[in-house]
Specification:
This protein is mostly helical. The protein has seven helices and three strands; from the N terminus they run H-H-H-E-E-H-E-H-H-H. It has a domain of about 130 residues: Fe-S cluster assembly (FSCA) (GMP Synthetase, Chain A, domain 3, 2-Layer Sandwich). About 35% of the residues lie in helices and about 10% in strands. The longest helix has 15 residues. The two termini are about 30 Å apart.
């Protein structure tokens, strides 16, 4: 597809191609993953004392994997009332940060290999990091290798600036992303 062929409508249809018209259920009325494995939430580091200390500092602190994980861990799964951390979709060990090179890479693992919400999950991670990280960072969001049946296509969508920008122009899709970021189920 050439750049001039990219329209907001076409991009949104590509991004949303995996999301059912019915929302949280497949054509048979069943959840995509009716019984996900839910893990205990990891205890976060003392953010309040760190935040106060950082507010008093004038030098720029390096951003690390733990900080990135803290930003994305509480994003809600679009289908279930659990965070991505509790469903083991995002893990701190799957976050790579090169502060000096201004790059962040987050790999995520959908709960099932045919998850139709993978694009929405990845878009939610990307939006959260775009809203919280300094503009100097290049963010890559990818599905962990071998964990999704459409891994290549979803990764291409999530890391194409034009497709992401056009998808975020869609009010309905942006509303679903905002629901995930606010801790609510999007479907």
């Amino acid at each position: 597809m050439k750049a001039r062929d990219v329209t907001p409508e076409r991009v949104v249809s590509c991004v949303m191609s995996d999301v059912d018209a019915g929302g949280d259920a497949d054509a048979g009325g069943e959840y995509i993953n009716p019984a996900p494995v839910v893990r205990a939430k990891r205890i976060a580091r003392a953010n309040t004392s760190r935040a106060l200390q950082e507010a008093r500092e004038t030098a720029r602190d390096a951003i690390d994997a733990e900080e990135i994980f803290d930003h994305v861990r509480d994003i809600n799964d679009p289908e279930h009332p659990y965070s991505l951390e509790r469903l083991n979709v995002v893990r701190e060990e799957d976050v790579i940060v090169d502060d000096a090179g201004c790059r962040v890479k987050v790999s995520f693992t959908p709960t099932v290999p045919h998850c139709s919400m993978a694009t929405l999950i990845g878009l939610s991670i990307r939006v959260k990091l775009a809203r919280t990280l300094p503009k100097r960072f290049k963010v890559d969001v990818v599905i962990a290798p071998g964990t999704h049946s459409s891994e290549r296509a979803v990764n291409k969508q999530l890391n194409d600036k034009e497709r992401v920008a056009a998808a975020l122009e869609n009010v309905n899709l942006l509303e679903k992303v905002d629901l995930c970021l606010s801790g609510k189920t999007a479907v």
